Amino acid sequence: RDYLRHHRLPELMQRLAALLLYHRPERPREFLIQVLEKVKAGKRDESEYPYLMDEGNLEAMFSLLDVVDQGHIRAAQYREALKTLGLSTEDLQFEDDMSITLDVFKEEV
Predict the structure, then answer these.
(1) Taking every annotated instance into account, which residue ranges of this chain make up the domain EF-hand (predicted)?
(2) 79: enclosing H helix or E strand
(3) What angle do the packed helices 9-23 and 28-43 form, to 10 degrees?
(4) Residue 76 is assigned to a structural domain of this protein
(5) Is residue 94 part of a domain?
(6) Which of 63, 69, 84, 87 makes a 20 to 30 Å CA pair with 6?
(7) Spatial distance between the Cα atoms of 50 and 39, rounded to a whole number of angstroms
(8) Quick one: which of 81, 96, 87 has its CA closest to 11?
(9) Under DSSP, is residue 28 helix (H, G, I), strand (E, B) or coil?
């Protein structure tokens, strides 16, 4: 368990499964190999990291969280959104009462 947690393998497996379900490729093994190659290259800053959501998806999600159209959400809302997406909240540097703008939301997610 410590090994899995240390290397963040549960999050990686969850992200890979989500990408598979989202894209539903004809050749899942080849797709996973390509995604893992992109992850590897992205870690070396050689290419873009493979994302499940595009900018439009993130804007739509933010607008659902910012129901009164204030232009920001609270960090607590942001944390819950990450949990809902199955993303880690361990390394968050935001206090619960801080405001998160759309730009920060897109950058961080």
Answers:
(1) 53-88
(2) helix 75-84
(3) 130
(4) yes
(5) yes
(6) 84
(7) 7
(8) 87
(9) helix
Does residue 102 share a domain with residue 61?
yes
- Triad 88, 14, 80: Cα angle to 5°: 35
What is the model's pLDDT at position 70?
92
Note whether 104 and 63 are same-domain residues: yes
CATH of the domain at 4: 1.20.890
Structural domain containing residue 29: 1-43
Which residue reads 């759309």 in tokens? Answer: 102
The angle formed by the CA atoms of residues 79, 18 and 12, to the nearest 5 degrees, is 70
In a domain, 48, yes or no: no
Bridge partners for 99 per DSSP = 74
CA gap 33, 30 in Å, rounded: 5
Same domain, 61 and 33: no
For 86, other C-beta atoms within 10 Å of its C-beta total 13
Say whether both 97 and 63 belong to one domain: yes
**Gyration radius from the chain CA atoms:** 16
Percent of the chain residues topping a pLDDT of 90 = 15
